[in-house]
Amino acid sequence: MRFVADAHLGGLAHLLRMMGFDTLYDNHFEDSEIERIAAHEGRIVLTRDRELLKRRGITHGCYVRAIKSTPQVREIFSRLDLARSARPFSLCLDCNVPLQRVAREAVAERVPPAVLERHDRFVTCDRCRRVFWEGSHWRCMRALVDELVGAG
Ligand SMILES: [Zn+2]
Fold first, then answer.
1. Which DSSP symbol is given to 139?
2. What pTM was estimated for this model as a whole?
3. Ion ligand 1 — residues with CB under 5 Å?
4. Which of 21, 88, 92, 96 could be 125's S-S partner, Cβ–Cβ 3.0 to 4.6 Å?
């Protein structure tokens, strides 16, 4: 299941990426662009704008009721039954591309020495070239991830 989020749903887009769902988002997306992407790539449109969902090219849309991103991702998970297909921490949150596992030696020059010492599982994004490790950016999101996966 792949998504395109409208310009107001950046927080939700990031949380869906965190859970491993391919979600396009750009805060400059025009309605016509979202319609084109949805039709062309078979993506589900996520929006809080009912008018957008009336466009002819949008066959699969989901009106998001919640206002804030955490309740929004809970809502989408439960309505679309996403828990079983979630793959947490498999996509770059900024680039929406799959993260690749990399060997510890390969990242030796790109992470702080203390991190290198304490961790042995690293992933990298081929687009932005950043390196991630467990416990870095995602620690604070762990509780939400566990809740979302467990909810199914
Ligand atoms: Zn990236």
1. G
2. 0.90
3. 92, 94-95, 125, 127-128
4. 92
